[in-house]
Design goal:
42% helix, binds flavin mononucleotide, 188 residues, alpha/beta, six-stranded parallel β-sheet, globular, two-stranded antiparallel sheet, 7 helices
């Protein structure tokens, strides 16, 4: 479960943490949270195209190892000015083969659920040859839901509202993973 925003007052880690807890152990999924603020990548600074996998920088190799170690991803991110956060696109752009064929689910949020950010991200992940599940989770953050610098009044309550949607995409991820396993077994 990737935490897709890095602002100092962001709400993403709280949401992503609750989503990780909810998905972990359901549908045979075993989940962990990856915080892009901790990964702390610079703007893409590799001299070669990532598709070549010829990484010069230690931070790229470390990020590659992390992404390789997971079979599927849930991207949790807000809508920023009708798009997705640049930090998430940068983290995706750093690598290429590491993402290929892996199932992905999108959890977006914003006043209207972050629909526009989700649509754009679907196109990006299709370009990376990821297998994006059929449904997104679109969390509507309403003015009454936030206090102070936009912090959630009740993050657990908000996530509970979307329990069915989260369970549904968890099932879809799991089905993709099972299909991948069957294909690779069939292929020997
Ligand atoms: C740069 C920026 C642009 C934003 N643009 C949108 C937007 O287009 N649509 C929307 O619903 N909310 C927008 N918001 C509000 C965010 O949904 C809200 O601030 C949310 O908490 C951001 O996620 P984060 O706290 O994890 O960074 C924007 C917020 C920021 C900081």
């Amino acid at each position: 479960v990737i935490v897709g925003s890095t602002r100092p007052t962001r709400i993403c880690p709280e949401l992503a943490g609750l989503i990780t807890e909810r998905l972990d152990g359901t549908d045979e999924l075993s989940c962990a949270t990856i915080d892009l603020a901790e990964i702390n990548l610079p703007f893409l600074d590799e001299p070669q195209k990532p598709a070549l996998g010829d990484y010069q920088h230690e931070h790229t190799r470390a990020w590659s190892d992390i992404v390789r170690s997971y079979d599927a991803f849930v991207l949790v991110f807000p809508q920023y000015n009708w798009g997705y956060p640049a930090v998430l696109k940068n983290a995706l752009d750093f690598l290429y083969e590491e993402w290929r064929d892996k199932p992905a689910a999108l959890v977006t949020y914003g006043t209207r659920g972050g629909v526009r950010a989700g649509e754009q991200m679907r196109a990006v992940l299709t370009g990376l040859h990821m297998r994006v599940v059929a449904d997104d989770v679109r969390i509507k953050i309403l003015p009454d839901d936030v206090v102070d610098a936009g912090q959630l009044r009740d993050a657990a309550g908000k996530i509970a509202e979307y329990a069915d949607d989260i369970t549904r995409v968890g099932g879809q991820l799991s089905a993709h993973l099972t299909a991948t396993h069957l294909t690779s077994t069939a292929g020997g």
